[in-house]
Specification:
Lysozyme, 3-stranded antiparallel sheet
């Protein structure tokens, strides 16, 4: 028998913090190189011609841009803008949009051409609505993550987000001593770890913290347009796999337990091949990289992430980064493995943004919690 109680009796179903990813422009005309050489065929030529070493610093660069979008700051103080960035995620410029979409698209393409002609971009790819061009363009008009509010729910500063209850032998808090989401996740983890049901390393708790803050904002009733539900944004199929009937879909302790079980399954499939490729990395770097890839497995499927390490048509980047890991951060490696395979096996910009946004949330959480496993030293 399960029970959960909470001071918040609100019954609405907010969309939470699942981010809407928008990249402007798809390729129809060819890319024109700034130096007048033969045009590229389309935006994927930009990806394929980018050497692996250019992933140096890409995580920090993309995190800067994503912070602007998530917080509505810097060049995204005005949401009626698109920011343009290159293949190393370096900011190149912006345009202010407004009016009809076709007109906006034309202005984006004009700006792309200008960036190439002035040497700020090595090439440009004109595009049409609904796809990708180059330099890459990202709209500032996206739901703000409201990281401060989400973090307050997660760590318990927002008392309305605290909880107490039971689930499958697990008891969290009491009516008079309710727990934060952070404490609840840690207690479920420890209960299952001690019982032998999971073998996940404790540094995965930092990854789960970022996931909760970004995907649901810690809102119990978070319900995405893709029908992902609850604080862990689990699909109905995943909830059924965990044995939860419909009445338990938003039960937070059950959600935590289900997410840990699913992550454990991914861990058992991913950890051996990860160790084979990256087991020689320094411990903290390996842990951070593994957390990002485990998060990507949660988002995209563990089979697709394994393929980045094992499929000869996809693992060239992984092999390069494993050999030259000293030149790259864990974030650079995680994003580089995806970037160099964009357009293959359904990998797209949403994957880059997702991992980057969660890493931002992890940094914010680590700044507030001194005992959260998985935080970088210093």
């Amino acid at each position: 028998m399960a029970a959960e109680n909470n001071r918040n009796t609100e019954t609405r179903h907010p969309r939470g913090l699942r981010l809407l990813i928008a990249v402007a422009a798809v390729v129809v005309p060819p890319a024109v190189a700034a130096d007048g050489t033969a045009p590229l065929a389309h935006w994927q030529k930009v990806i394929r011609q980018t050497p692996y070493w250019e992933s140096q610093g890409v995580h920090a660069n993309l995190a800067t841009i994503r912070r602007w979008v998530l917080a509505g700051e810097s060049y995204c103080e005005d949401e009626d803008r698109h920011i343009l960035f290159d293949r190393r995620a370096r900011f190149l410029g912006y345009i202010t949009t407004g009016g009809d979409r076709d007109g906006n698209q034309s202005r984006i393409n004009e700006r792309r051409q200008q960036l190439a002609e002035t040497g700020k971009a090595h090439a440009w790819v004109a595009g049409e609505l609904g796809g990708i061009g180059y330099p890459f363009a990202l709209s500032c008009k996206q739901p703000h993550a409201r990281l401060a509010e989400a973090l307050a729910r997660y760590i318990g500063d927002d008392e309305e987000a605290r909880l107490w209850g039971t689930w499958d032998g697990i008891r969290i808090g009491t009516r008079d001593a309710q727990e934060s989401l952070y404490d609840a996740i840690r207690q479920v983890y420890e209960y299952r770890r001690q019982g032998g049901q999971i073998s996940l390393p404790d540094h995965v708790l930092g990854t789960l913290a970022g996931k909760v803050v970004i995907e649901s904002g810690g809102i119990r009733e978070a319900h995405s347009s893709m029908d992902a539900r609850g604080i862990m944004q689990l699909s109905p199929a995943a909830l059924r796999d965990c044995g939860l009937d419909r009445s338990m879909h938003f039960h937070r302790i059950a959600q935590i337990d289900c997410a840990l079980k699913l992550t454990e399954q991914n861990h058992r499939n991913l950890e051996p091949v990860f160790t084979e490729h990256f087991g020689h990395l320094p411990q903290q770097k390996a842990e951070m990289l593994y957390g990002m890839l485990l998060l990507q497995a949660y988002h995209s499927g563990v089979g697709r992430v394994r393929a980045l390490l094992t499929d000869p048509s996809l693992n060239g980047a992984a092999r390069y980064f494993a050999e030259h890991h000293e030149r790259f951060t864990a974030g650079d490696i995680a994003l580089g493995m995806i970037f160099h395979n964009l357009g293959r096996d359904r990998f797209g910009f949403a994957s880059l943004y997702y991992v980057t946004d969660v890493s931002i949330a992890i940094q914010e959480t680590c700044a507030r919690l001194v005992d959260l496993p998985g935080c970088p030293d210093g």
